[in-house]
Design brief:
CATH topology of the largest domain: OB fold (Dihydrolipoamide Acetyltransferase, E2P)
Order of helices and strands: HEEEEHEEEHEHHEHEEEEHEEE
Largest sheet: 8 strands, mixed
Helix content: 10-25%
Strand content: 25-35%
Number of helices: 7
Length: 281
């Protein structure tokens, strides 16, 4: 397995399968300013709808690629505050400003919004909006198999925010869930979560690879990796099949099927951790 080394403007084909968190030092200002994609033009942001949809002067609506801000919550509490904080930070960054758009392979989401990495000039500096939100602890990194551009850089920004207790890493809203807390994870069904723990066993069933984080696979947390996703990981020494006993961090939407699970469709969803880095929370 190849540890991630900080790189500039990584294309999906150049991204290593796992992000090794221990011992990585990235100079944020040097790395993030170089994230670029296909040119999506630029326009003035005239409105923000729903907290995370930018309405441009040219009529386009734009969604944030690479980060997920907290969802709206009907009840008052930490979730509502987390959402409001992210909405305000985004508005402060882009509302009434000209934004530069950079695109990846998938350019539209199911709502018809253009998906883009956004850049804005502030105080003579070019600011990457997604990196700013992640580095401030106001958004978590999210990626898809056809939108993976610059995700390692965003993961590094998120890690720095987590390590230094920024934003909602300090408040606990973004707390990493231990894989052993299957009841907590089961209650988080349909939520986007980051989960970490030690792989108890690895099994291949009908072309799918299962990473089991407990002895009872019908109840404990499981990561499912379809065959087509497995092909995106390095094949040297059957890397995925040798994860038994290794600490892993995974991110994605929690589902409930024979216990809580997350489906991994591409390498950036998983991080191989140093043994001492497994969360005790």
């Amino acid at each position: 397995m190849i540890p991630y080394v900080c790189r500039r403007a990584l294309k999906p084909s150049a991204v290593s399968a796992f992000v090794l968190l221990a011992g990585i030092a990235c100079m944020v200002s040097d790395v993030f300013a170089e994230c670029r994609g296909d040119d999506g033009g630029s326009s003035l942001v005239t409105e923000i709808r729903g907290g995370d949809t930018l309405i441009l002067q040219d009529g386009r609506s734009v969604g944030l690629m690479g980060v997920l801000i907290p969802r709206r919550a009907a009840d008052a509490g930490l979730a509502t505050q987390a959402r409001q904080d992210a909405e305000k930070a985004l508005a402060d960054l882009v509302l009434g400003q000209i934004v530069e758009l950079h695109l990846d392979i998938r350019t539209r989401d199911r709502y018809g919004r253009l998906l883009a990495h956004l850049f804005v000039m502030q105080g003579g500096q070019r600011v990457w909006v997604q990196e700013k939100l992640a580095a401030s602890g106001l958004a978590r990194v999210i990626s898809f198999k056809d939108n993976r551009r610059c995700i390692p850089d965003l993961l590094a920004a998120e890690r720095a925010a987590r390590d230094t207790g920024q934003g909602h890493w300090r408040s606990g809203f973004f707390a990493i869930k231990p894989a052993a807390s299957e009841d907590v994870l089961a209650a988080s069904s349909q939520n986007y979560e980051i989960v970490e723990g030690q792989v108890e066993s690895v099994a291949e069933v009908k072309g799918r690879l299962y990473l089991n984080f407990g002895k009872n696979w019908r109840r404990d947390f499981t990561v499912m990796i379809p065959n087509e996703a497995s092909k995106l990981f390095p094949t040297d020494d059957d890397a995925l099949t040798k994860l038994k006993g290794r600490p892993v961090r995974v991110r994605g939407w929690v589902e409930n099927f024979n216990g809580p699970s997350i489906t991994v469709t591409h390498p950036e969803q998983m991080e191989l951790l140093a043994s001492s880095a497994v969360s005790q929370r």
